[in-house]
């Protein structure tokens, strides 16, 4: 094996796309998917690559330093791509501590495991996957660049910002080789239906209300998940040590416009009368501390490494809706049990 790469959070939404890309594209790398399978982790996301000889799954919590050490030893880990995290802003508002535990303490545990196991730190890479939310909230002008000062506003973004700082501190203090990326909102297959787009797809199917926070005027910059996975692949191989790269689609949408678009496509796909699904739109109480706008300037990764998204929003959203309609059983399974409890508590 040329490399033995530990990908954390590989059973989650973005992680599963990253794991699949690496397993299929690099048969001479061993890919270890390390995930403790929280509500957001689902091995079903990777059923197509389960039998591959260069793929192994390890059910471990990044907060368990003994087991982490064991995994580094057992699989002679050469590099890390770290995606495991608590990822949902609304959950961070009701339970900030679990975000501190996984996103901050868990990341430091992983950094320690890597630093202690690797003899020559210059020979290995710790790639940390983060979010544009660490930069705070924009008003209607400007973009986040790699030099925008950190100004996290939610418990989620505060915990991710802290984890980014720890990764940079390990590079500075111990000489760990790191690359970081901060990406905008992802959408696509396998996203847990607590996030806006899959939540709307699911609720339209079930003819349930589509909860739009506040007036729906908040803006997000959306990127198709496979384009994010391709960017991670590129940065893992060609990113400059110690550097940070912003990843985004130059694709800003107001929430209400996204919800209306999803309604329109769903009406066509489900053979409903035009305008039928939009009747489900329900304006609800705004999210506490709701960031107004995120927008990424992705010039650096484009100009230095030639990355750009392959999907337009039109093709990406079409593929996404198609996937959810084709994978009804997946959606059924993830929206039973604990999901119903969360939904009831959050939306009443
Ligand atoms: P997700 O919630 O879908 O998946 C997270 C995964 O991490 C799950 O498989 C879960 O089981 C695992 N996990 C959670 N806690 C763990 C722990 N203590 N130990 C081991 N595994 C654990 O998240 P996602 O949307 O796929 O996000 C992945 C990463 O990308 C996160 O670091 C997130 O901050 C970042 N990110 C997400 C977005 C987005 O739009 N979703 C955008 C930019 C960056
Ligand atoms: P989300 O998918 O939770 O991602 P993030 O908070 O990380 O950007 O939310 C995207 C946007 O949609 C955000 O502005 C909040 C809004 N939103 C709603 O209006 N209603 C909902 O039910 C959810 C989950 C989100």
What tags apply to this protein structure?
binds thymidine-5'-diphosphate; 12 strands; globular; binds nicotinamide-adenine-dinucleotide; 348 residues; 12 helices; lyase; alpha/beta; seven-stranded parallel β-sheet; Rossmann fold; single chain; three-stranded mixed β-sheet
Write the element-wise H/E pattern from the N-terminal end onward: EHEEHEHHEHEEHEEHEEHEHHHH
Question: Would you identify the CATH architecture of the domain at 3-187 and 223-249 and 290-310?
Answer: 3-Layer(aba) Sandwich
Radius of gyration: 20 Å
**Count of individual helical segments:** 12
Q: Which consecutive residue ranges, at least 5 long each, have pLDDT under 50? A: none
- Taken as a percent bin, the fraction of beta residues is 15-25%
Mean pLDDT: 97
């Amino acid at each position: 094996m040329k490399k033995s790469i530990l990908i954390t959070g590989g059973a989650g939404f973005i992680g599963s796309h990253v794991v699949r890309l690496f397993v299929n594209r690099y048969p001479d790398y061993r890919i270890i998917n390390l995930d403790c399978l929280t509500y957001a982790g689902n091995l079903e996301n990777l059923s197509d690559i389960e039998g591959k000889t260069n793929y192994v799954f390890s059910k471990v919590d990044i907060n368990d330093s003994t087991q982490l050490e064991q995994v580094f030893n057992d699989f002679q880990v050469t590099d890390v791509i770290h995606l495991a995290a608590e990822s949902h802003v609304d959950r961070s508002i009701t339970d900030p501590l679990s975000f501190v535990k996984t996103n901050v303490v868990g990341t430091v545990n992983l950094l320690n495991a890597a630093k202690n196991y690797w003899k020559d730190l210059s020979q290995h890479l710790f790639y940390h996957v983060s979010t544009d939310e660490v930069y705070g909230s924009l008003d209607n002008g400007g973009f986040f660049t790699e030099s925008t000062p950190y100004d996290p506003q939610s418990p989620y973004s505060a915990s991710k910002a802290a984890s980014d700082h720890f990764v940079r501190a390990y590079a500075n203090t111990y000489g760990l080789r790191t690359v970081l990326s901060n990406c905008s909102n992802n959408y696509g297959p396998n996203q847990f239906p607590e996030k806006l787009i899959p939540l709307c797809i699911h609720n339209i199917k079930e003819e349930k209300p589509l909860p739009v926070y506040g007036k729906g005027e908040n803006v997000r910059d959306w990127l198709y998940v496979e384009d994010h996975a391709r960017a991670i692949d590129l940065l893992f191989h060609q990113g400059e040590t110690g550097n940070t790269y912003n990843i985004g689609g130059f694709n800003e949408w107001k929430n209400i416009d996204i919800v209306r678009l999803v309604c329109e496509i769903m009406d066509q796909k489900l053979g409903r009368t035009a305008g039928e699904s939009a009747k489900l739109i329900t304006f609800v109480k705004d999210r506490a501390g709701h960031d107004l706008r995120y927008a990424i300037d992705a010039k650096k990764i484009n100009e230095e490494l030639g990355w750009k998204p392959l999907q337009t929003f039109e093709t990406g959203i079409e593929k996404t809706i198609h996937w959810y309609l084709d994978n009804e059983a997946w959606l059924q399974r993830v929206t039973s049990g604990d999901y119903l409890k969360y939904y009831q508590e959050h939306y009443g």
